Amino acid sequence: MIKRNFWVLVIFTLIVMFQGNELIGQEKDLKYGKTPDKFAPYNNFRKAYKYHFLEPVQFYGAGREKLPPKDLKEVRLGFLGPLEGSAIVSLGEQMLNGTILAIEEANNKGGYAGIPFKLMVHNDVGLWGAAANEVVKMNDEKVWAWLGSIDGIVSHVALRATLKMEIMMVNTGDPDPTFTETNIPWTIRVISDDRQSGYALASYIFEKMKHERVAVIRTNTRYGRVGIMEYSGVAVRLGHPMMIEERFDTGEIDFKMQLESIKKVSPDAILIWGNAKESALILKQIRKLGMKQPVYGSDRMVSPEFLRIAGQDAEGIVTTCQYNPDADIPGLKAFQANYFKRFGLEPDVFASHAYDGMNMIIKAISKAGLNRVLIRDVLTDLKTFQNYQGITGKIILDRSWNDIGEIWMAKVQNGKFKYSASPTIGTKRHSNTNTKY
Amino acid sequence: MLKNVLIKYSKFATIAGVIFVAVSLGFNLKGQHSSDLNSFFADTLSTQDNTEGLPARNSDGADLNNNINAMPIYGNWRNFTSKEGLPDDKTYCVKIDGERVLVGTHEGLAVFEKGKWRTYTTKEGLAHNGVLAIDVSELTGDVWLGTMGGLTRWSAGKFENFTQLNSGLPNDLIYSVICDGKDVWVATGGGAGQYDTYTKRWEIFTEQNAPMHEPWTYGVCEGDGKIFIAAWGGGVVEYNKKTKKFRDYVDPDGNMEIDLFPDDGVVHDITTGTSWADGYLWVATYFGLSRYDGVHWKGYFDHDSGLASNFINYIIAQGPIAFICTDKGLSTTNGKNWVTYTKNDMDKNGKAVIIEGTEETELVMSPSISHNYVLGVDVKDNVIWVATSKGISRGELLK
Questions:
Q1: What are residue A146's DSSP bridge partners?
Q2: Which residue of B has its CA nearest to A22?
Q3: Where do the domains of chain A lie, and which CATH numbers do they carry?
Q4: Containing H/E element for A388?
Q5: Is B182 among the domain residues?
Q6: Handedness of CA B331, B333, B336, B341 (dihedral sign)
């Protein structure tokens, strides 16, 4: 009896020791969006009943059998971006320029089977819910695929419409993580999102720079509200939840009230999440208040506008950026030269990613032909464009068709942004120390 | 002494070990990745495929087993495409209106009456040829059409259009429309709208006056004195018509990439439709299905129920039965038993898979529904109409 129970005890102990993940319902790699296990929601407490985005959702509808139209004079492609009446028109114009350059280059090479591409340009700011109406217009114009947009609300509204119209949407400017978390099989995103930015910033701030008490001031828009979420989640899981979160509106110029609240809690560092103009003004007012903490920022601060307004105060600022103009990437220098020659200005992150995105659409059409569903199939097959070498780097899509490719840190030195690789995320264990809030 | 201690603790260890292993296996079987459970059902099915005594598989369902009485079975499918008179193969929605059937297609409104199809487009007065939603007023008989370019009222042979420019319509892209007495509700790309046909006034509901994250709405339904709005990214928004107050139902875990618990609330915040009937609110998402009885939520996924797919385009409930339009077929359920209709890839035939508890049987359908990508459905008396990505199907109640 003793002997038998002894062996039962031994077997039980071995089961406990070597159970691995099998016995707790974990059979697949559950890492979504390059998320380290310990950054995954609730992962330190229990497994979820259902994990999404582990397999791509396919489109099972009809349409692949449709033959291309005859006697086409032009192959229409759509563009949706902020071109009028928006605080981010300058970003939209860069995105449009990158798109135009890609189309002009394709037309110089003969377009599609000798038929020129034509860009149908749409402004995403106008009547309430304008993006939905503009996608309907693109459907009526019979575009084969389209590119856009930047604003998170616009992109979401357009995405829902594009599913109904069944037109492939390539997003090159909206970093809202929830954009591809919708399971809609009619879009890919060709720019790293705020999940990757948030992970990179959190790793840089907490692991590399060893800050513990970080204050946040962010725009009240969706870009700020949703953009900060992944950073915030990781900060909590690393044991350093944000000390204070202040907000501001687009167009605001006086941030004294928010900054005085931040000053009172004496943070180690400050993170600004907003558009270039407001972020620069906030930075200047931080320094004016005598606050000398290191300041970090979101991707939209990487712009000439930010440097111009912030001036000397910009020195030392660190942000993330989805584009490294100094990178040694095939085709990048030629793109920059051609862009400058065509438009008279340096391309930014939105121009460069739009150039990559439109080139992918053009290549997909050259492979699939003029059929919306087949164009979608090629762009989403996770083979044809997996590791696609763009001028922004390699495009790596996860199973929700979100770009999890490289992201860089950008630091202002001598009045210019200098770029470096982002830190490897998730090397630090959870903090068990009291961070003295 | 040592002997007694060993006996005592080894017994304890044995019991603890058994409990631990049982609990661990239990958890494993209940989770998403319970391949053991799935393969168990698969094995059961494959065994049944070769076993005598199961219900016969035929097209008329005459030999159906008595134990599936709880669920209606439809068959005798008849399919219509552009070859049979539809303006386009792509059909978005369908509404049975007395002796006629209204079908929204990508190229206009198709009306089936006395065995013939008739098409109405912008030439006749529609706001847009893309007709995404249809409802008929019980008060007036007016037909309300949600199109890609505005709301159209078809009344006494005339078309009247409501757009953002000529009315209080929130947005011209209308995903859903319902008639609720004198009111017409729409879910649009720019919020929900309520039109009072008596006062001719609009009220708009967005994130500024309702608990929505953003002004994106996709479905709307009425029930129990309330309006339920499927708010894209915001779960379900409930509007109490008496108190004019809102409340929302969202996924409690607050994360897009997981569902922590299946029965704790809406399975996901990306909702695509709602329907209320028989005391239940049914909620469709692209991540699964939810049902709410006013107290408890119940979640259904394709891996743990008879649901054809987690990607649900549309839902409508009638009595205890929910009709669920997915990208992989039409599922129907009473919350416990399931019937799912699909078409074979290579021919016009298909099947109905009937699940009652752990019992699964199949009925061959010849022909079956027109296409597996189902976008709309309506049921009246003994007839069902199913709008698909390639044509529309009419079925009859078999049992």
A1: A78, A169
A2: B28
A3: 75-192+327-406 (3.40.50.2300), 195-321+409-421 (3.40.50.2300)
A4: strand A388-390
A5: yes
A6: negative
Q: What is the pLDDT of residues A121-168, one digit of tens each?
A: 999 986 667 899 999 999 999 999 999 999 999 999 999 999 999 999
Separation between Cα atoms, residue B384 and residue B68, nearest integer Å: 19
- Residues in CB range of B274: below 8 A, 6 or more apart: B219, B220, B221, B228, B229, B230, B236, B281, B282, B283, B284, B315
Domain interval for residue B215: 55-397
Residue B71 lies in a domain: yes
Q: What pLDDT score was predicted for residue B37? A: 29
Cα–Cα distance between A343 and A98 in angstroms, integer? 10
Q: Which helix (H) or strand (E) holds A89?
A: helix A89-108
d(CA A418, CA A81): 28
A169-208 pLDDT, tens digit each: 999 999 999 999 999 999 999 999 999 999 999 999 999 9
Q: Is A129's CB within 8 Å of B255's CB? A: no
Residue A367 contacts by C-beta under 8 Å, 6 or more apart in sequence?
Answer: A378, A384
Domain assignment of residue B27, yes or no? no
**What CATH number is associated with residue B259?**
2.130.10.10
Taking CA atoms, what residue in A is nearest to B191? Answer: A129
Q: Which residues of B touch A181 (CB under 8 A)?
A: 256-257, 270
DSSP string of B331-382, one letter each residue: EEESSS-EEEEEE-SSSS-EEEEEEETTEEEEEEESS--S-S-EEEEEEETT
Q: Is the pLDDT of residue A317 over 90?
A: yes
Report the C-alpha gap between A59 and A249 in whole angstroms.
Answer: 39
Token pair listed for A342: 């065509």
In the predicted model, what is the mean pLDDT of residues B301-327? 97
**What is the arithmetic mean of pLDDT over B10-16?**
56
Interface of B with A in 67-106 (CB under 8 A): 89-90, 92
Span A374-395, pLDDT tens digits: 999 999 999 999 999 999 999 9
**What's the number of domains chain B is made of?**
1
Task: Kindly report the nearest CA distance between residue B334 and chain A, in angstroms.
Answer: 23
What letter would DSSP give residue A305?
H
Rounded CA-CA distance A353/A193 in Å is 12
At A40 the pLDDT is 83
Amino acid letter for position B165: L
Q: Does residue B284 have a pLDDT over 50?
A: yes
Q: Which residue of A has its CA nearest to B5?
A: A2
DSSP letter (8 states) at residue B224:
T
Task: Confirm whether B155 is domain-assigned.
Answer: yes
